[in-house]
Amino acid sequence: MTQANQYVVETKHLRKELKMGQVTVHALRGVDLQIKRAESLSIIGPSGSGKSTLLGLIGGLDNPTEGQVWIDGIDITNLNERELTRVRNEKLGFIFQFFNLIPTLSATENVALPIQFARQRKHKNATKRAKELLELLGLGDRMHHRPTQLSGGQQQRVAIARALSNDPALLLCDEPTGNLDSESSGIVMERLRAVQQEMNTTVVIVTHDTEVAQTADRTISLIDGKVASDVVGEHA
Predict the structure, then answer these.
(1) Domain map (residue ranges) of the chain
(2) Strands 40-44 and 66-71: what pairing?
(3) What share of the chain is helix, strand, coil (3-state, %, to 5)?
(4) For residue 214, how many other CB atoms are within 10 A of its CB?
(5) What is the separation, in whole angstroms, between the first and last Cα of the chain?
(6) Residues 6 or more apart from 146 whose CB is under 8 A from it?
(7) In this structure, are residues 62 and 16 in contact, taking their beta carbons and an 8 Å threshold?
(8) Disulfide check for 185: which of 89, 147, 177, 236 has CB 3.0–4.6 Å away?
(9) Which residue numbers in the chain have pLDDT < 50?
(10) What phi and psi, each to the nearest 5 degrees, are found at residue 17?
(11) What does the alpha-carbon distance between residue 42 and residue 222 come to, in Å, rounded to a whole number?
């Protein structure tokens, strides 16, 4: 990777083939992508276009058939599972459509958990860090609430805070507003934008929602496993 300081994500000639019985599905067909530090990028496209496959490869959750992926200057393509786990823990934060919060823990405890389990702790006081993130995401009055006492939008913001707990260079979001109404979706995206700007975090969002996609600095469209368009948005 020649631009390690500039790009948090770089892929070269990324291909992914999936075996479906006797049929080979070409999920990705040579994707070259560069994502700058502190940039927000949305990935759109029809179902089956390769969006989630690309996100999974960037996150080290799957291996490409061909090509390479760099995360914050590290080539993750041929890392073993132990090395990949370390990169994911230290460099990446994940946000999914489903919140995956632990129901018996408060918002603060849910956010503090990844800090307590981190191999190299960036924050000595996990509870203090959790509260700071919840404040940033507008949940200062909900810190002691459990997930069942929170709305869907509030739970997703707790999930965002948890994903940010170890200061990842890259935040990967797979349909983060998929289970939310329009008002909650707007609040979540507003807070994500604030996180990107205040923490200089690179944010990648896979979405079917055009309004969500338009909040990003840049949008790429995938069709049949290829980048069909790459457009800089009005927020860049």
Answers:
(1) 7-232
(2) unpaired
(3) 35, 30, 40
(4) 15
(5) 24
(6) 103, 104, 105, 106, 107
(7) yes
(8) 177
(9) 1-4
(10) -110, 135
(11) 11
Q: How far apart are CA 145 and CA 185, in angstroms?
A: 21
Identify whether the C-beta of residue 54 lies closer than 8 Å to the C-beta of residue 31.
yes
Task: Note the pTM of the prediction, 2 decimals.
Answer: 0.89
Q: Are 97 and 133 in contact (CB under 8 A)?
A: no
pLDDT of the residue at 170: 94
Q: Residue 19: its pLDDT value, please?
A: 86
How much is the pLDDT for 3?
A: 47
Token digits for 48?
């089956």
pLDDT the model gives residue 120: 63
**What is the CATH code for 7-232?**
3.40.50.300
Token representation of residue 57: 């490869």
Q: Enumerate residues 6+ apart whose C-beta is below 8 A from 184.
A: 151, 152, 153, 156, 177
Q: Are the CB atoms for 33 and 83 separated by under 8 Å?
A: no
Q: Using the structure block, give the residue that is written with the tokens 């049949």.
A: 224
Tokens of 166: 């170890």
pLDDT of residue 121: 67
User: Per-residue b/e over 130-158, b at no fewer than 16 CB within 10 Å?
Assistant: bbbbbebbebeebbebbbeebebbbbbbb
